[in-house]
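Researcher: First entry.
Model:
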Amino acid sequence: MKDGFIKVAALTPKIRVADPLYNKQAIVEKIGEAERQRAVVAVFPEMCITGYTCGDLFLMDTLLGQAEDVLLEIAEETNGKNMLVFAGLPFSWKGRLYNVAAAMGNGQVLGLVPKMCIPNYNEYYEARYFTAGMEEPIEVALKNGQRVPMGSRLLFSPDCQRKLKVGVEICEDLWTPSPPSISHALAGANLIVNLSASDEATGKDRYRKSLVEGQSARLLCGYVYASAGDGESTQDVVYSAHNMIAENGILLAEAERFQNQSAYGEIDIQRLDGQRRRMSTFTGKPEAYQEISFHLHSERTELTRFVDPLPFVPGKLEERRKRCEEILSIQSMGLKKRLEHTGCRHAVVGISGGLDSTLALLVTVRAFDLQGLNRKGIRAVTMPGFGTTSRTYGNAVSLIRCLGAEFLEVDIKEAVRVHFRDIAQSEENHDVTYENGQARERTQILMDIANQENGLVVGTGDMSELALGWATYNGDHMSMYGVNASVPKTLVRHLVHYYADTCQEEELGKILMDILDTPVSPELLPPEDGKISQKTEDIVGPYELHDFFLYHMLRSGYEPEKIFRLASYAFGKEYDQETILKWLKVFVKRFFSQQFKRSCLPDGPKVGTVAVSPRGDLRMPSDASAAAWMAQLEKIGALL
């Protein structure tokens, strides 16, 4: 359970209808399987102790008595197991019969949660036997004399992980307009378990899955759905054991239907709590709940879930293309509105032959096309300096001409030399002044051309550069509208690639592909043998790592220790732990020290769930200390 990960299981034993003793053995075997998989929460189907399809046998004392006996025996089997187990059975209390989920752990029954919504339509006849459960917990006596709470408003929380709070609903409860899980979540439940006996019908699996995914997203929770399967009566319907595990709208695991297959997954409780803290609308009037504590010992949860090394980039081609088209539309519509509002019929873009300026020009072309403006109104300026190579220069010129923008070239070398003489800067001293003097000269040129044309300077810098502060203050840091400001570097590449694939222009496609193949560089230092000598990722680190760090720090609020663990898991084949730790330290230091650049960013459109605009997602003081974050990383370094 370290780092907030909780391993859970949805389990469907092969049972016999109306044979609790047989079913006990099948359930205990599955508990043993879950224990070997190191699951700490194990969920069984609705009525699995007796079988859901007992019909009028539910009215028989023999079945009810044996079911309760078996419940106590299963509870004893949890003694010494680091696990919270939920299993369903019929339970009689004061002349009423209830469909309940029994929570078990530490060798005893911890509580009973009754089904609240009793279906009595189509193939369901539960109202013939069962009474809708009570919300407020009452105390009921079991055969062994133990008194336990029974009611819907129960939450289960282990003593070693007080942040984990488990709520329960049963099958039909989820399908209703106001599921009990809503109240559970508002009361603090971040893991919902559902004991179900949902029979199959053509297409029903898709709807069932959408319910589970949707509820986990709506409630910002983990959701474990365990359903009845092979072993139930097939007199009129068939059950498929459609077991599922979801987290905040994402399906982590899904069993193959009709196989009684178990589903396992790790729920990230820490991430869910972080999301809730950020959602100011995750509010309501939580009802009073009884919280039941039980003992679990804390242990490190081994990860089996997929940790995406490129969290900003969809893995599937079709989804990635859809995302790229959507982002290009957001960028171009944002720029279109700004041009219309300011009355500008000209845009000025500095083109270096690199990825970011290429994307900015493509977006500007789209914005002009949307307005029906002549592309000649785009002043695309190439400004060769001391580090410009023939490759990037050639690509810049070819790109501008191929897109039909107005080409301008301003060689900055002589102007920069004059400036260096004015401030007594040696041209042989390739320090930060040498580099930034060129960047600021370029920005001045773009701004002045924009003034001449009554135009607007389109910014090219991306979000990854802004996160690291890899931008010259009042140089490429500044523009009149930054179209790439919330696009991470790993996604910039895919956006340009998508444009190359879909533009249906062979020459343009070739130019874009060569730009994609060019190393990322500001080209502010002289080339070596005509080739780029200054590669950004050699200086600040791989952008795929920095984008990973950025996503999990801002989107999930993770601590550096957890980010390091996830990065080691996701990039284990590409980077050793020492390398990951090195660049994570660089990221943290730069992220905190360079906030002053982000505090005065130009306007630009938000395109995803992570952004660094001081007016939007990131309100961070420029003088915040990174000490607490760095302390964690130093501890990690001491252990490596």
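Researcher: Second entry.
Model:
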Amino acid sequence: MSKFDSPRLIADIGGTFARFVVETAPGRYEHASSLRCADHSDFYAAVTAFLTGLPSLTIAHAAVAIANPVDGDEVRMVNYHWHFSIEEMRQRLNFDTLVVVNDFTALAMAVPRLAPHELRRVGGGAMRENSVTGVIGAGSGLGVSGLIPANDGWVALGAEGGHASVAPHDERELTVLRYAWRQFPHVSFERLLSGPGLELIYRALSDAAGQSGVALTAPEITQRGLANTDPLCRETIDLFCSVLGTAAGNLAVTLGATGGIFIGGGIVPRLGTYFDQSPFRARFEDKGRFSDYLRAIPTYVITSANATFVGASAILDSQLKLRNLDTRPRTALLERVRRGLVDLTPAERRVGNYVLAHPREALNEPIADIAAGAAVSQPTVIRFCRSLGCEGLSDFKLRLASDLSGTLPVTHAQVTNTDSTVELGTKVLSNTASAILQVREQLNSDTITRAIALLNGAQRIEFHAVGQYGVVALDAQFKFLRFGISCAAYTDSRLQLLAAAALQPNDVAVIISSTGRVPELLEVADRARARGAALIAITASQSPLAKQADAALIVDHVEDVDTQLPMISRILHLLVVDILAVGVAMSRSVTPVAEAQSERLPMDDVPIVTPESEATGTQGRRKARRASPGVRAATPLTSLTSHSSSD
């Protein structure tokens, strides 16, 4: 977590209560307050009421977890009447940053940061490390989310699984569903798994039992059921726990959540140890043929009262790191947009507000989506970019990417007929750079080491490719010949089969294929393996060629070869060849040769002047090794990737 430059406001907004804290240092929450939403006319009134009661503090950054989908700048609560614009609220509250996220997205981000004493295990199973995790919980509604491991962190899912159609398990639940259908044309899990859902279940069971029943609130139902003073209330919370088990089991199999299911919300933690003996776990595991799969997945109740705060704080912190807002100069692009709004036309101002509210989306979305999000025409988006002194949208995105993270964006931009020459060049270079960075993430050091070892031990190396990738094989041949290694490149399918049939056990065949599914190259691989030769593949993952190879160097980049020649993928394959060549050069401790020998003339063509040639006016030629026995016929490491004059 980054160092705080000022206290941060963290909020958890539900349909009944709005909870606030001030995070004064990482993980240190002070000035906690819980306000009833009904006591305040809107979100702004609740926040200002909390801030008014604080001592003199300067708050620059805030994170709000809200029980509602968050998709765009406009937030409209489903279970309450509050609605607001995020950017407008940021300006009214005078915050530098206001991050608003779904409350269960925040809760999910808290899970990896919770201590063991903040969880209570329910049932068996064993957590699988670094695996997908599910989060579910009932309060004023039903929240659902999940965590997916990504590099050294996690990606939280902004899911709305609470609105999935409820699935009755037995006749009693079907009776409750039929009762609910009288009021609602669609009955979701949230209709039953929530505070109002407890009340609906109680009324349905009362109706089925022929009892008029007393109108009880969810807290009253829970209290009587736990005290076991009202059989109908006890049956209500039993059925509630059963349906929750069904929903949690559905989430587990949908996500493949072998990292566990974590249960939050306001209801289950209040059930205490009763929940541990309730029908929940039995129903969670009850998935017929897939029951064994569910038994292996652990379930936990989140007991920490600050879990949502922890997750919201983590999301805010990551946003601040991403945007570099704590240290960025005030002349950054987003600040220029913010200051320049008053000078823009009303339509351009809408684009500016959209960019300020959704900087990451504006970075990656096509112009049509940006225009739709801002409710303007596409030419207006271009005019907005030029108003800021940018060449066009592509130039604006490059500057925005630098503003957000200090690096080029890792995105793919489609070249169109309307692009200027500047935009065309920018897109081609950016797309290539993006693909290179993605391949860098795919590199496997063990596979590269194994491939270099095979090449170093080879008596002969053959490079095989077809079509547009033939130049990659020829480039590889050129590089490895300069090491004095016997090698050849084959791009004709008939010659490839003949050459592969002559391979020996100490030889290596390197097959270069973007798809790894070309029949001719697969036949070459079969023949090479039959001859006992080692096989290195530069190809796509999970392809037939990759599965045959002794070392598969993965390049996953898809290009539409029906409409264009391979461009980026060819460059990626050339770079992989460079990696192998540099690796072989380093392992052989290559001795640099003279520049005149490596760049000006082929080594076999160095003219040798003898007394006889001087007398006759002719010059003889000798093999370089005979003329210069102390110099190895190899390329210096520094020139392996910069031989444009030779190419």
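Model: Note on the second entry: The chain has a mean pLDDT of 81.
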